[in-house]
Write a structure and sequence with these properties.
four-stranded mixed sheet; 32% strand; 2 domains; single chain; 135 residues; alpha/beta; 2 helices; Immunoglobulin-like
Length: 135
Amino acid sequence: MPRLPATVLACLALAAGSAAVAGCGSDESDTASTPAESTADVAPEATAQEPKNVEVSMKDIEFVPENVTAKAGQTIIWTNAEAILHNVTATEGAKFKSKDLSRNQTFEYKTEKAGKIDYVCTIHTGQNGSITVTK
């Protein structure tokens, strides 16, 4: 079963506590005998994980976002979001070149080491981007 982020668990705990209080018809505080789950107990287990991939769209003859940051080992996935052809070609810092991509086609590159990678679409002058790869 996947773990939920601490903020989601905290909201669920608060909602459960509110429902218990709202459903009580008495002025007495017997709902205090069943306290809501504490976020302090949940937070250490529910740590956020970094995304495995970094997404870049090709839209309006631009890379969106134009500049991204990734950790070494993460994969960059470019998706052509429009009807015209695009490609992705490294110009500095790495060696990769995609085929020409039609709408909804993707190209992936897995980062290997820290540094900066510049890339372009060779079909459209001025469509460029960069990846800053960290350790």
